[in-house]
Amino acid sequence: SEDMSGQTEVFTSENNSDTSYTVTGVSENEIRYYQIVVDDMWGLQSDSEVGNLGFITDIDANVYKIVQIGDQVWMAENLKVTHYRNGDEIPTGLSTETWVEGCGYCGEWALTTDGAYAVYDDNSSNIDIYGNLYNWHAVDDSRGISPTGFHIPTDDEFTLLENYLGGKSEKMKDNVMWNGTNESGFSALPAGRRNGHTGLYQEMGYETFFLTSDSSKLRELNNNTSYISIYTNSNIKQFGASIRCVRD
């Protein structure tokens, strides 16, 4: 357990040149917590912080796989949290009209400044697979939505990821649900979007968008291209998109 009660010693050494241990036998959905304990020659003990193997959790106790890509550590699943870090609920269930707070293409805009999330097609079965779709105002809220130790990536942090992968989107895409190789382990899914002009759900199975902390830029992956696109649009703050967080 996370408080190390019921802990089991898995490796010990009295040789300071023998300090490596390879963890084996962990199933895909199992979480294990580890701690390193060092005793010096006088018996003084030093304990490391408790860390988990390949997973993080959010305030709702949702569990996410994580993956190291280059020098960065990313969530390997889309965010599905429904509360800010302080426990306040993130609004959801908004109608198409309320989501955009305007009348679409008529030109009469009263754009919302409230954070919100949506579930694609309002179908709860999509949450476990694709996560939630958030607007940018939820990202910008000072209460925070990222799991502890992680944050919403900046545009520059996404650029670092892209450069490390040679700009190849197939290295980020899941290799089961669409045309990717997933060499990076990022496991991007074609989660679709909620349109920022109309509030309609679109493009599941074809493309995905990721929010950044930049209010004018999204990242886009789709079935027709092998590169990662920067998506800019006047309605990005109302756009419903997926979130992947990166470690602080």
Describe the structure.
With 248 residues, the protein is of the alpha+beta class. The protein contains 4 helices and 16 strands. The protein has helices spanning 96-100, 125-130, 136-140, 155-164; strands spanning 33-34, 37-39, 45-47, 51-52, 55-57, 63-69, 72-75, 117-118, 133-134, 150-151, 193-194, 201-202, 207-211, 218-222, 229-231, 246-247. The chain has a 3-stranded antiparallel sheet with strand order 5-6-7, with no helix packed on it. The longest helix has 10 residues, at 155-164. The chain is globular and about 70 Å long. The model is unreliable at 103-110 (pLDDT under 50).
In terms of DSSP E residues, the strand content is 15-25%
- Tell me the helix content: 10-25%
Strand order of the largest sheet: 5-6-7
Given helix and strand content, the structural type is: alpha+beta
- Total number of helices: 4
Q: Uncertain runs with pLDDT below 50, 5 residues or more?
A: 103-110
**Rg calc:** 21 Å
Task: Write the SSE topology.
Blueprint: E1 33-34, E2 37-39, E3 45-47, E4 51-52, E5 55-57, E6 63-69, E7 72-75, H1 96-100, E8 117-118, H2 125-130, E9 133-134, H3 136-140, E10 150-151, H4 155-164, E11 193-194, E12 201-202, E13 207-211, E14 218-222, E15 229-231, E16 246-247
Antiparallel strand pairs: 1-4, 2-3, 5-6, 6-7, 8-9, 10-16, 11-12, 13-14, 14-15
Quick overview:
10% of the residues lie in helices and 20% in strands. It is α+β, with helices and mostly antiparallel strands and 248 residues long. A hairpin with a 6-residue loop joins strand 11 and strand 12.
Core attributes:
single chain; 248 residues; alpha+beta; three-stranded antiparallel sheet; 16 strands; 20% strand
